[in-house]
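Comment thread on ticket #2218

A.B. wrote:
> Attaching the input chain for the structure job we discussed in standup.
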Amino acid sequence: MKYTGNLLERWTRALQEFLTAPQGSETSPASLRQLDDLVLYHYRGCPFCARVERVLGELGIRIEMRNILSDKSHEAELIRGGGKRQVPCLRIRRENQDDEWLYESTAIIRYLRSHLD
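C.D. wrote:
> Ran it. Output below, let me know if you need it in another format.
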């Protein structure tokens, strides 16, 4: 069976939507809290990124998402600021301080749950 890029892309998108859907409750976009001091560097199809996105949905949080594969300037920014090309990476903007770059999905989820829940 031959898979086309289009079919694979649709399957990947459907899987990611399934994995990032809030569990246990419906969260409408209007009810999400927008947090401007957080940015998540990610790319589509990354299972660790999907875990973080799912927790964001569960917590009712919306943050800026920067896809490092679809925008090379985001990738360069991640490497320049965080020091490596690894996703997911949560950039925590701190007023009057250097930004914090948090790698590893478990560390990011722990931060989100402890600081924002």
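A.B. wrote:
> Thanks. Noting for the ticket: The first strand starts at residue 33 and ends at 42.
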